[in-house]
Design a protein that fits this description.
The protein is of the alpha/beta class. It is built from 17 helices and 12 strands. The chain has a 6-stranded mixed β-sheet with strand order 1-8-7-9-6-10, sandwiched between helices. The longest helix has 20 residues. It is globular and about 60 Å long. The termini are far apart.
């Protein structure tokens, strides 16, 4: 399938070039929240240096960052958090050796494991199953079907789960070569929307909620129901996992703690996420409903960090190859080996 690409305006380009917005910090939280006491046993023996890539997505990873519990539980580890605009940027960081562990979608993770990138990474956690929190929103109220997007300009961050869902929707509608796609990071998307340069975008929260004068045409829950599910994942370089299994286990326990907070006390969790996202808790709360969060006991099952999930990565790769997003599908063993379930299993044990 071919698609048409257009140049991005100078303003949008400037925002896109700055796609990786770094807010590095080490050890102690950044002041947005007081350091929490470790909710489980502190491990002073771990001295790992970990460079964590995060994104502004309302899930457990952002809650772990805000709470500071990873630093509290690993007082002798050197932990640095850097903010990235998309999973494609995180993949580039893995490729350049500038990140050890980070949040990326299932589509970027698949691209990393496929040619031509062939980056040796492993999926270590599923932050969320993406639903309505990632959607296709259009400006024109007269557009009520994907088929009506023919001739329109649609923005999405390339190599993201949103891009993957958009391509799948256009493919099903048979208009892949009739839509102009523009590669824009979330911040650039808002600027392009406000200036009228784009007709729509497939984007995620919290950017999605900023486009108040548009309407949702399709959600990632819809594409999942059509057989194309997407996920926000945590990936890590195999070298980092192999060298630091104890750190990965504690990191996983912290993530599981965060998921528990999201499931049992979402209102309080929304307050912490609001600090990180720069919006009100009232704006955060409904965004949580667009994502499904999984405990370690769920993730350790075959459906998630098991063979079924490896099959999902493989089918994603096959679709990306059809769309020209990768040059070759890797051997199925690559996708099976691209999943690290040991930490989730350890945390899930009673």
């Amino acid at each position: 399938m071919k698609r048409t690409l257009v140049a991005v305006t100078a303003l949008a380009t400037a925002t896109l070039v700055a796609g990786c917005v770094s807010s590095d910090r080490s050890s102690s939280p950044d002041g947005s929240a007081a350091a929490s006491a470790c909710p489980f046993e502190v491990d002073e023996s771990i001295t790992t240096t970990a460079r964590i890539a995060y994104q502004d997505i309302p899930n457990g990873d952002l809650l772990v960052k805000d709470s500071g519990i990873l630093e509290a539980c690993l007082p002798n580890a050197e932990i640095t958090w850097s903010r990235f605009a998309s999973g494609g940027d995180v993949v580039q960081a893995f490729g350049s050796g500038s990140a050890d562990l980070g949040l990326l979608g299932s589509s970027p993770a698949t691209k990393a494991l496929s040619a031509p990138l062939n980056i040796d990474v492993q999926v270590v956690w599923i932050h969320d199953v993406i639903g309505a929190a990632e959607s296709l929103v259009v400006r024109d109220p007269a557009i009520t079907s994907v088929e009506q997007l023919a001739g329109k300009t649609i923005a999405t961050p390339f190599a993201s789960t949103a891009h993957y869902s958009l391509l799948a929707a256009l493919d099903r509608a048979g208009i892949t070569d009739q839509v102009t796609l523009v590669n824009l990071a979330p911040g650039a998307t808002v600027a392009a929307w406000q200036s009228g340069e784009i007709d729509g975008t497939w984007i995620w929260e919290p950017t999605l909620s900023e486009l108040t004068d548009g309407h949702v045409l399709l959600t990632s829950a819809d594409t999942a129901a059509a057989g194309v599910p997407t996920f926000d994942l945590a990936g890590a370089t195999r070298a980092f996992v192999d060298a630091n299994p104890e750190f990965v286990a504690v990191w996983t326990r912290a993530q599981d703690w965060a998921v528990e907070q999201l499931l049992t006390n979402p209102d309080e969790a929304s307050v912490a996420l609001a600090v990180q996202l720069g919006i009100s808790p009232e704006e955060v709360r409904p965004q949580l409903d667009g994502l499904t969060y999984l405990r370690a006991s769920d993730q350790a099952s075959d459906e998630y960090l098991g063979t079924a999930f490896a099959d999902n990565l493989l089918s994603t790769a096959q679709f990306l190859l059809e769309q020209g997003q990768i040059t070759a599908v890797s051997d199925p063993e690559v996708y099976r080996n691209g999943i690290y379930v040991d930490a989730a299993r350890k945390v899930a044990q009673p």
